[in-house]
Write a structure and sequence with these properties.
Layout lengths: L9 E6 L3 E7 L7 E7 L5 E8 L9 H15 L3 E4 L9 H6 L1
Parallel strand pairs: 4-5
Antiparallel strand pairs: 1-2, 2-3, 3-4
Length: about 100
């Protein structure tokens, strides 16, 4: 998933032994884009409960950037990730599956 970022901002990473959060802030826009994964088992399995991009900054490559960064962290740390698709708001299951 190669990111085609079209909106400049700042990426912040917070990594602990049980939680990894990435936040992307776009100057001049309210709201933050974020992705979080959490450790759920001592065997090294993690869960992906959240990827959020505010509606005002969607379709700019930000979700792809967050996913690319998460994949790098997962690969570098040999983390096994479990995830699901949970549509909310205006994002339906089909759109999220396509992403």
């Amino acid at each position: 998933m190669a990111s085609m970022l079209t909106m400049e901002g700042e990426l912040t990473k917070r990594i602990t032994k049980d939680c990894i959060t990435l936040v992307y802030c776009v100057p001049g826009h309210s709201g933050l884009a974020s992705a979080t994964i959490e450790k759920i088992c001592d065997d090294g399995t993690w869960f992906f409960p959240r990827l959020f991009v505010p509606k005002s900054i969607r379709n700019q490559g930000i979700a792809s950037l967050l996913m690319d960064e998460l994949i790098k962290i997962l690969d570098d740390n040999k983390i096994t990730l479990m995830g699901g698709i949970y549509p909310t708001g205006d994002l339906d299951y089909d759109r999220l599956t396509t992403f």
